[in-house]
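Issue 218. Parser rejects a valid record. Input:
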Amino acid sequence: MNDLNLSLLETNLQYAFRSRDFLERALRHSSFVNEHPDKEIENNERLEFLGDSVLNMVISHLLMKQFPRLNEGDLSKIRSSLVNESQLAMIARKIHLGDFIRLGKGEMNSGGQDKASILADGFEALMAAVYLDGGFDNVFEVITAHFSGLFDIIASSEENQDFKSRIQEIAQATVKLQPEYRVINESGPDHDKTFEVELVVGSISAQGTGKSKKAAEQAAAKQALELFSRQGQ
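Output the parser choked on:
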């Protein structure tokens, strides 16, 4: 594979390798290595192992920052919806990773360059290669760039759930009170504010944050629903 082809992949990836050795190893499928026993080369499976951990660590960090009020169970569910074969293969297709993975003839003839499992494994190996080549800060930037669209979809989905209506219905049916909301903190510049809202209904007090008052109220309402559930009200 010539340098021109690798440069195109680096452009798609939004990262330029200091050492192409890491990149070339990440692209080397076991079927290719098995067909070249005379060459002292390593396949990408060890990088795949490392890349899985790198992805989970970075995505976990991003989720905790993006959704400060979600509990461990909810965060784990979202992470599983992001770091899986289907999603990783989708991102791999966007950067045309299949055009660069080195496969054995049999795997190539069976359409291996577009198999979800090979693409997902290759993307994990690629993230490990970025980590080993450039360190945590660089792989953090790369993963953030390629997952940002998925995070926007998740954030929109969270905001669009009408937790406020649900908590109002439950509060009316149980304690005969209306939930009261108040903004308790605003932070950040005018063009990028973060709001913190407190919800009080009966003995329940919950807080939520968001990029708008509406989003913060929804987050507080979701937290209140969880508290109602725990108290059995």
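Fixed in the parser; the record now loads. The domain at 162-232 is CATH 3.30.160.20 (Double Stranded RNA Binding Domain).
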